[in-house]
Design goal:
alpha/beta; globular
């Protein structure tokens, strides 16, 4: 239909169409610009080298699966710290000692509360040792108890795990809320030097009666394992550390550990399972990733 001229101040049909045509033209032009922008987005191989390196190495940038990140970090790490009780060995050392003094049930309950994060570690430590001291724990009776109850029973695959780490030149540490007098023999079995053992010391008076525990040790209190790992990293100059353990105090060690591998082969603690980068039920899962030593 041919438009009809209108009186001044009125709009013709053609005039009404002009804004529509102009809008369509702008949309078309925008689409061309958008297609051009997409066309020039670089591929990964075209990104500047330092940017490409960042994308390769930063887990958050890549949104890498935590388990995949943990496995990759295991192959790149320079130090691994292990908890001991219910991780390296299948028992809790203080629970074994408590049996000698007939307070096994009470001490086990405090141990569980501490490992699940329900009680501060130093409070549980104090209460457990006081219970044992009130039931005739002395220096001599403790030494006798360790002889009968202290023989380690290792978690399946852990000795091979440590052997493979050593073969790769990775330094291995034992960082435990347990006691040095029970852990040093374990370190010897695993070819770990004594200066790579961080654990607690029970103190006695000159007459052999119980005095307390060394509260200057970082592992004697809640939040102590991250402090121990910071010290280890500083002394050893380590860049990529991993923590392996079963308890809430082990989970606290990331950071400074880059990765936390939770272990549930003895006891599954839901808080630890949920917080771990990689949660394993047996060390065979780790051995499947770590190449055999030659």
């Amino acid at each position: 239909m041919t438009p009809v001229a209108m009186a001044p101040g009125k709009t013709t049909l053609a005039g009404r169409r002009r804004p529509v045509i102009l809008a369509a033209s702008l949309l078309a032009a925008g689409a061309v610009v958008l297609r051009a922008a997409v066309a020039v987005v670089p591929k990964v191989g075209d990104i500047a080298p330092h940017t490409e390196e960042f994308l390769k190495n930063d887990a958050d940038a890549k949104k890498e699966d935590p388990v995949a990140y943990a496995k990759r970090t295991l192959l790149e790490c320079d130090a691994v710290a292990f908890d001991v009780d219910s991780t390296v060995v299948v028992t809790e050392g203080i629970d074994l000692l408590a049996k000698c003094f007939n307070v096994g049930k009470e001490v086990a309950a405090l141990t569980t509360a501490a490992m699940n994060g329900g009680v501060k570690f130093q409070d549980a430590m104090r209460d457990r040792l006081n219970l044992m001291a009130a039931n005739n724990m002395t220096r001599k009776s403790l030494e006798e108890c360790i002889k009968t109850e202290g023989k380690p029973v290792y978690s399946k695959g852990v000795l091979e795990f440590v052997k493979r780490l050593h073969a790769r030149g990775v330094h291995v540490y034992l960082v435990s809320g347990g006691f040095r007098n029970m852990i040093l023999p374990i370190a010897k079995d695993m070819n770990i030097p004594e200066d790579r053992v961080y654990a607690n010391t029970i103190l006695f008076k000159n007459d052999g009666s119980y005095k307390g525990f060394d509260q200057s040790a970082p592992t004697s209190r809640d939040g102590g394992k991250p402090k121990a790992l910071k010290t280890i990293a500083k002394k050893g100059g380590y860049k990529t550390m991993i923590m392996v353990g079963d308890g809430a105090t082990d989970l606290q060690a990331r950071p400074p550990a880059k990765v936390f591998i939770g272990y549930g082969g003895v006891t599954v603690r839901e808080k630890v399972k949920a917080g771990a980068d990689w949660f394993v039920m047996g060390f065979n899962e780790v051995l499947n990733v770590l190449p055999k030593s030659k």
